Amino acid sequence: MASFFQKLFGSAATLPALAADGLAELGADMHSHVLPGLDDGAENLEQSLELLRELRALGYRKLIMTPHIMGDFYKNTPDGIRGALRALRQAASAAGLEDMTLECAAEYYLDEWFGPRLERGDEMLTFGGEKRYILVETSYINEPLNLAETIFQLQSRNYQPVLAHPERYTYFYGRFEDLVKVRENGAMLQVNLNSLAGYYSAGAKRVAEKLVDAGLVDMVGTDAHNLKHTATLRDKVLPAEYMRKLLALPLLNNTL
């Protein structure tokens, strides 16, 4: 599915700079830490509302917010996450942000607690309705020995795994073919938009660009934790050449 800009202007090389609300074409952001008081993102409702205003200005009208669920560190539960969502919905309505559709899922860390949770049949927060997308992440440095097995186990239980920010996992650097294999084995790949601006590292930027060039990006997320992230989106990502190339891909964000 060609992007709106590609239809109008042709190849990515000739696309104009995006407008300030240029992320509107994506439709939905499916990775952020905007829910208050749950992880290393927004600490309270005031910070959550600040992030909502900034993301709205960037063009988003739907957010699927994904707090961390991580072992003994972020012991979030589906009920606790839904409670934070209810509080933010009420605050957003009172603040005049009724046109923002707010939903929740989670970002699951593939640690020693995840496998037993899956085996027990614990409730998992997913997004995309019947597609049952589940956002997962790993250590940035250490490759999990059971990544392929976990992907298989999730699929066997009718989940569609989405690997968060694969460009940030240093264990894949210099092993692009192995990253491609992860996707071939059934995991969708979600790139962080700020990676296109080199926000995390030069290495992450290179891998993100390579994924875009290879057409291997299924979804993109802001991974917004704070106003520094949204400022980078506005000031550095929207003008980036690879942002225009990215929008020419058949991304799934606008199906959410």
TrEMBL record:
<comment type="similarity">
    <text>Belongs to the metallo-dependent hydrolases superfamily. CpsB/CapC family.</text>
</comment>
<dbReference type="InterPro" id="IPR016195">
    <property type="entry name" value="Pol/histidinol_Pase-like"/>
</dbReference>
<keyword id="KW-0732">Signal</keyword>
<dbReference type="InterPro" id="IPR016667">
    <property type="entry name" value="Caps_polysacc_synth_CpsB/CapC"/>
</dbReference>
<keyword id="KW-0378">Hydrolase</keyword>
<protein>
    <recommendedName>
        <fullName>protein-tyrosine-phosphatase</fullName>
        <ecNumber>3.1.3.48</ecNumber>
    </recommendedName>
</protein>
<feature type="signal peptide">
    <location>
        <begin position="1"/>
        <end position="19"/>
    </location>
</feature>
<dbReference type="Pfam" id="PF19567">
    <property type="entry name" value="CpsB_CapC"/>
</dbReference>
